[in-house]
Amino acid sequence: MLVELLKSKIHRATVTDACLDYEGSITIDKELMKAAGLFLNEKVHVLNINNGERFETYVIEGKNGTICLNGAAARLVQKNDLVIIVAYTSMTPEEAKSWRPKVVKVNAKNKITNKKGEQKLVSIKK
Fold this sequence. Notes:
By secondary structure, the chain is mainly beta. The chain has one domain (3-105): Barwin-like endoglucanases, CATH 2.40.40.20. It is 9% helix and 42% strand. Strands 2-6-3-5-4-7-1-8 form an 8-stranded mixed beta sheet. Strand 4 (43-48) and strand 5 (54-62) form a beta hairpin. Residues 121-126 have low confidence and may be disordered.
């Protein structure tokens, strides 16, 4: 049996653009991708804090500070909306006992704000 857990989260990213005329995806700053452990073309869920929309798409790499929704997903956000970007992983219950997701906190310009010395691997405890 496998359980599905949070793998990665980019918390409160600011949408920098929405481009309807594109096949579809979310363009994410490559440094944020790296910090969150996200892969090119990885499936993610996008949670729009401003309007409550929740949808899934896949990741493509972008320039510094970029969070751009492309294609049909562009209709679900507006520039300057705050979003949470999450990815999940499957593992055994035994592996899950010690699992810690990568949580990346960002400011309004999508720059990482995790405090110096604060782990990017954050445990969410009960």
